[in-house]
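To illustrate the input format used throughout this study, we show a single complete record. The first block contains the structure-token representation of the backbone; no residue identities are included at this stage. The design step must infer an amino acid for every position from geometry alone.
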């Protein structure tokens, strides 16, 4: 006789079975046990070509068939394969007797199997005797690696099956530490799931959740003695590999035209807060990552608010004419304060560049006169900051300070007696215009160009297309006047933008390895790269695309800056 586990579809009822041909039997009495524990007593079968015929065990076979129909699959069935000359009745009686002799308690089984191995029986022989898989016998024998006091506690029903299993994950020293807690009435020994957290320091990450090939992981994988599940001993290495795999998944969706958002670790995706939306109508892919490493993909969703906005926009467009496509909306990657910060710092850099290029400034001044609607009116850019931190950042800008010095010099050059502090004024009158004109006639062409450049720079509207256009034409490099300050990092909150900046400073591999980390964690790595601290190579002269000319969108989300840059692209050659 040979014990095998044979797939269900290779088994059939043998013609010699005395119940062959009858209607399926009632298996309601044994079905609950088989659902819970599987088939314990092997079926007796004999070879029939490449399949097997069931000689004994017809009711067990039909019970397994019901389980298969309910669950869609069933594990291979334990079968005793008869050899020529085997007596079926004797074999079945022997198997049933041995199975009934075997204590269902795991520790009692360990003792039985340990005694048999001491008598020279192999794992395969023990498995054949009791109709079990070899792996089950090895699992029971592995309980011998637990310290005796833990085995005794289990025998006395002081430890449940789940706690026993997790204790098999513990090293001998951890088992002793746990026993100290267990035997101290004043202490609380962790049990069940809490025990697993205790063993791994709260970082118990199963190998089942990895979306990368396990061979890429070079650290230790801890398995319980039952070998049913493994855990990553090096959580940091797991997260590095998992995040890279998440980033590759993100890039794959993005390459197919999907907007993708990787949620912060632990932030769940709630379907009831979203509407199922196809890609062509603005639907996005959300990648949710749990603290335990599980990764869930949610393809084709839009937040309720955005979906309602898109529906309203689509309705209005539909009323305007047949065939109108609903406008796809996307979540803005920039908050209004961030937009304000970028507008003011980009404006400061371009304004300073203009006063150094009077020829260009003069032409921009004329363009303003020609393109204005109605009577030409002028107004100095007020540079209104939305927050105190943005105002402080602008005040400390070298570009802002350099322009203030030039403006003071130009005001002194004009020497206007009515208001020696004034430059551009929106409430001027004919008399003032005549005064300025008279003074300009007394200046050289070079001095007039200097005044014109300063006037144009002072009236340049922050956040306008003219800022982007002049910045591209003059090849403005804000790195000469701007450094990443606290206000900038505080205002960057879009995770995709932060991850893109991390790729700029630390490289794509580091960015991918931290794609699901919190934004604050990724920002700290960027700061470390800029300062050369915490083991990071120092990055000199970094400029985010948000401040560059032409503007480069880091996160891919819609913004006024991105829209403006797109509209003027091609008008001013780059390079």
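Output of the design step:
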């Amino acid at each position: 006789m040979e014990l095998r586990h044979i797939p269900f579809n290779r088994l059939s009822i043998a013609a010699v079975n005395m119940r062959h041909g009858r209607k399926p039997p009632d298996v309601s009495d044994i079905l609950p046990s088989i659902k819970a524990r599987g088939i314990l007593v092997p079926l007796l079968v004999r070879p029939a070509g490449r399949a097997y015929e069931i000689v004994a065990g017809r009711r067990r076979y039909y019970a397994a068939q019901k389980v298969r129909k309910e669950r869609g699959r069933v594990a291979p069935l334990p079968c005793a394969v008869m050899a020529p000359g085997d007596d079926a009745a004797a074999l079945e009686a022997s198997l049933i007797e041995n199975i009934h002799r075997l204590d269902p308690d795991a520790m009692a089984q360990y003792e039985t199997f340990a005694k048999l191995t001491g008598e020279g029986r192999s794992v395969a022989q023990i498995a054949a005797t009791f109709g079990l898989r070899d792996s089950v016998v090895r699992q029971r024998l592995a309980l011998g690696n637990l310290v005796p006091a833990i085995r005794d506690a289990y025998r006395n029903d002081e430890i449940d099956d789940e706690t026993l299993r997790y204790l098999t994950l513990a090293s001998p020293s951890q088992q002793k530490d746990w026993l100290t807690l267990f035997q101290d009435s004043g202490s609380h020994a962790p049990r069940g799931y809490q025990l697993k957290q205790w063993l791994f320091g709260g970082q118990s990450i199963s190998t089942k959740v990895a979306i990368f090939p396990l061979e890429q992981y070079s650290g230790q994988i801890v398995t319980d003695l039952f070998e049913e599940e493994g855990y990553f001993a090096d959580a940091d290495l797991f997260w590095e590999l998992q995040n890279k795999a998440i980033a590759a998944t993100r890039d794959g969706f993005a390459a197919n035209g999907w907007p993708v958002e990787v949620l912060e670790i632990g932030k769940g995706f709630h379907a009831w807060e979203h509407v199922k939306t196809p890609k062509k109508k603005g639907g996005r892919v959300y990648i949710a990552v749990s603290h335990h490493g599980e990764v869930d993909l949610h393809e084709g969703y839009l937040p309720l608010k955005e979906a309602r906005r898109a529906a309203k926009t689509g309705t209005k467009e539909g009323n305007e004419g047949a065939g109108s496509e609903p406008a796809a909306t996307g979540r803005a990657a920039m908050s209004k304060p961030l937009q304000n910060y970028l507008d003011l710092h980009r404006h400061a850099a371009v304004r300073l560049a203009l006063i150094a290029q009077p020829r260009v400034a003069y032409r921009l001044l004329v363009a303003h006169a020609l393109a204005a609607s109605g009577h030409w009116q002028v107004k100095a850019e007020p540079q209104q900051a939305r927050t105190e931190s943005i105002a402080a950042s602008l005040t400390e800008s070298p570009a802002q300070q350099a322009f203030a010095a030039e403006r003071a010099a130009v005001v002194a050059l004009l020497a206007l007696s009515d208001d020696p502090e004034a430059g551009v004024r929106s409430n001027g009158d004919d008399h003032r215009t005549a005064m300025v004109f008279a003074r300009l006639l007394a200046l050289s062409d070079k001095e007039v160009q200097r005044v014109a450049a300063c006037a144009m720079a002072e009236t340049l509207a922050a956040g306008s297309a003219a800022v982007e256009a002049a910045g591209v034409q003059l090849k403005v490099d804000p790195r000469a006047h701007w450094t990443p300050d606290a206000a900038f990092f505080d205002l960057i909150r879009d995770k995709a933008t932060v991850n893109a900046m991390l790729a700029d400073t630390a490289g794509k591999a580091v960015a991918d390895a931290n794609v699901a980390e919190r934004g604050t964690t990724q920002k700290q790595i960027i700061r470390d790269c800029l300062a050369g601290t915490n083991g990071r190579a120092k990055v000199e002269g970094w400029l985010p695309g948000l401040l560059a000319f032409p503007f480069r969108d880091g996160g891919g989300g819609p913004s006024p800056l991105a829209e403006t840059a797109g509209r003027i692209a091609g008008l001013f050659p780059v390079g």
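Structural context for interpreting the output: Residues 343-460 form one domain. Residues 235-255 form the longest helix (21 residues).
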